[in-house]
Write a structure and sequence with these properties.
Length: 147
């Protein structure tokens, strides 16, 4: 699997719930891919390296890949009222590319992607960071989070 496939599928309509309390923004994308890499398929574990940063586990390579997906018009940021960063969404071309990757996943992997997307978009920023830090305290060492 190519690393860019994970964020692309996460942003796609394949895993998006009809109603999500919080947008898949840049912090939630980082945490979602982090959880996929940590807890997902063995083949995903090498896709992104994470280091402790301002808001927990952070992958510079993921940030570069998300920007690259946007520059290729596969992903965009949708304005969300009340959200500083907006929501990552796929374009029609991005949904097509995500679908092409999706069919190569096992049913367990597909379900796990959906669960992780649902998890990160159902938690407030504070709750998400608290829960990630509780499970992975080694990634809280550089955090600016005080909540």
């Amino acid at each position: 699997m190519h690393p860019q496939e994970l964020p692309l599928m996460l942003a796609s309509s394949l895993v998006r719930a009809p109603s999500e309390p919080f947008p898949l923004d840049r912090v939630r994308m980082q945490k979602a891919v982090f959880l996929l890499v940590q807890r997902g398929s063995d083949g995903w574990r090498h896709l992104y390296d994470y280091t402790p940063y301002n808001w927990g586990p952070y992958s510079r390579d993921l940030t570069v890949d998300v920007d690259d997906l946007a520059s290729k018009h596969l992903m965009a940021t949708e304005v969300v009222q009340g959200s500083q960063y907006g929501r990552y969404v796929t374009t029609p071309a991005g949904d097509h590319a995500a679908s092409a990757s999706w069919v190569h996943l096992s049913l367990v992997e597909q379900q796990f992607l959906k669960q992780v997307r649902s998890y990160v978009t159902s938690r407030s920023f504070n709750d998400l960071l608290r829960e990630v830090y509780a499970a992975y305290p080694q990634f809280a060492t550089e955090s600016r989070f005080t909540g």
